[in-house]
């Protein structure tokens, strides 16, 4: 891949695993410096040592409100600028609503919705001040085809989908692009929280894709000419039974 992101700085949340790690790797390969934000200090240290000096670790538990608010100033202190925000960190609670733990629902809504909105909100003054910036949120196929076995998760992604589509139209005039990625099932650690029967079905039907597939879609979005915004990439598995 050519170094199309040379000189740019990306901030990726949930960067120590899965989609965030693949997105980090793709942007590093394209010449960007990347601030990896994650709560998992050990995984961050391991991955940044492997990825080299352009990978800058920033350990933050985004569910800690004060730590979450420190993300943008700390990323700017580390890297000097933010050209790309990949607001990606998210967790999963699925299965029957009646069985769900209400504190787990709170954590998921907080991380998947509130934190994403705050991360985007906090990055805007810097990006608007520079007159350029790309924001990509990891949504989900669930935002488009809500499935009955994950009502709260699908709702969290639906909320974020709406947020992206509205903010995009507010900040376009400042030279910013805002879009989302909506993959179906991706082979990552998150799938450990899926209902076992649904995971078995996804595996049996061959509908799982790899984090690197999602990172390719991200790179497609980032490398379009600046007058083109890809507002959402929906990655629908051909075999998916909707
Ligand atoms: P993952 O579990 O592999 O990675 C998530 C990362 O987020 C981990 O490194 C974890 O440590 C970090 N994280 C979790 N809570 C955090 C917190 N409070 N503060 C900071 N970091 C935190 O999962 P993934 O599949 O790569 O998921 C990434 C995003 O993709 C999520 O928003 C998820 O909803 C979305 N998504 C995943 C799938 C899938 O099937 N895996 C499909 C569609 C969308």
Describe this structure in words.
It holds the Pfam family adh_short. This is SDR family oxidoreductase. The chain is globular and about 45 Å long. With 242 residues, it is α/β, with parallel strands linked by helices. The termini are far apart. It has 8 helices and 7 strands; from the N terminus they run βαβαβααβαβαβααβ. Helix content is 45%, strand content 16%. It has helices at 18-29, 41-51, 65-69, 71-79, 102-130, 151-171, 196-205, 211-222, and strands spanning 9-13, 33-38, 55-59, 84-87, 133-138, 176-183, 232-235. Helix 1 crosses helix 8 (211-222) and helix 5 (102-130) runs parallel beside helix 6. Nicotinamide-adenine-dinucleotide (NAD) binds next to helix 1. The site of nicotinamide-adenine-dinucleotide has 27 residues, from helix 1.
Give the CA-CA distance, first to last residue: 35 Å
Number of domains: 1
Helix content: 40-55%
Q: Identify the CATH architecture.
A: 3-Layer(aba) Sandwich
Poorly predicted sequence stretches spanning 5 or more consecutive residues: none
The biggest beta sheet, please? 7 strands, parallel
Care to count the β-strands?
Answer: 7
**SSE order, one letter for each helix or strand:** EHEHEHHEHEHEHHE
InterPro entries: NAD(P)-bd_dom_sf (IPR036291), Sc_DH/Rdtase_CS (IPR020904), SDR_fam (IPR002347)
Protein name: SDR family oxidoreductase
Characterize this entry briefly.
With 242 residues, this protein is an alpha/beta fold. 45% of the residues lie in helices and 16% in strands.
